Amino acid sequence: MNQTETRRPDFDFENFTFGVQSTDHMLMAAYQKGAWSTYRIAPVQSISLSPLAMCFHYGQTVFEGLKAFRMSNGKINVFRMESHWKRINRSLKRMAMPPLPEELFMEGIQQLLKQDSAWVIDDPEYSLYIRPFVIATEQKLGVDASQEYLFMVVLSPMRAYYNKPLKVKVETNYIRAARGGAGAAKNGGNYGASLLPQINAKKEGFDQIIWLDAKEKKFIEESGTMNILFILEGNRLVTPELSDSILDGITRDSLLKLAGEEGFSVEERPVSIEEICQRIENGERVEAFGAGTAAVISPIETISYQGKSFATYLAADAGMYRLKNRLSAVRIGVLPDKHGWNHLLDA
Ligand code: COI
Fold it and tell me: Can you tell me the mean pLDDT for 166-192?
């Protein structure tokens, strides 16, 4: 297909709000009688569902977020596609939903991207965000696992999710997820439940919140929609260890795996908020940032805890910028892909 046929002629690739605009096409597949149908790629369209469809009632909705980049050699790279497929299946399992076959996820996304390849423009600050999701569609009001589902994928142009360093507040009232809950799953409910505390924090002038553990409200879990990482003493990359209440972030994982190449040691361990505040109070250099597919690396400027503000290290020589540049260079093929993360579309 001629590339210009698929690009909306009036789209301004410089100025747009993330997540409002989709590309021209979407993917759809249905699960019925214990099996997934083959996928269909169609122009983006509204879908019609019964008001009894179970996704409206009991929260069986799971999603992923991954990105496609235009590489320096002109090819399209879907970054860590296989890791995202594995993670959506872990989320689906937790939410009692059927797994997606590898071919449906991987092949379907590749075909969709080929169809809308003109939306993957050559600009290192730009990516095409890929949003696969599964919803329960069986018509039934009894509380049960649905027997019918819809898998869809939409694509949306993206630049930086956050445009400036973040002022974050440590949330001491609400919690995001408890051990044994569904915090490690990318299900809609986790995000829905985070909105009220985030809105409250915004009213107080903060951009995001840091979640603490549900039991003791002592240990850091995540920051808003991102994992949280710290760089201590300029060379120690420290982040909360994973548990079933923390999302197993793929950007987090990429950074931990790249850290050695930038001279960082890695510590995955419980990180108490007291430790971080104490270090800053002692005059130590503490870098803090959120990491996620959408957020990539989003520097944190201040951490507010119990009414006191703690300023992190953000100067131009901060290690987080080196990590961000390295990740970006691997994704667009400027540095070698030692970990086999790049999934190139054959043109
Ligand atoms: C992602 O980083 O892909 C997420 O799921 C965050 C979302 C709020 C855009």
Answer: 96
Ligand 1 near 292 CB (within 6 A):
yes
Q: From 2.30.130.40, 3.30.70.120, 1.10.1370.30, 3.20.10.10, which CATH number describes the 166-331 domain?
A: 3.20.10.10
Residue-wise pLDDT tens digits, 106-121: 999 999 999 999 999 9
Nearest CA to ligand 1 atom 3: 65
Distance CA 76, CA 91 (A): 27
Q: Which of 66, 69, 22, 73 is nearest to 331 (CA)?
A: 69
Distance from the alpha carbon of residue 293 to the mean position of ligand 1, in angstroms: 6
Give CA 191 to chain center in angstroms: 12
Fold of the domain spanning 25-159 = D-amino Acid Aminotransferase; Chain A, domain 1 (3.30.470)
> Could you tell me the pTM of the whole model?
0.96
Q: Indicate if the pLDDT at residue 3 is higher than 70.
A: no
CA-nearest residue, atom 9 of ligand 1: 294
Q: Which atom of ligand 1 is nearest to the CA of 65?
A: 3
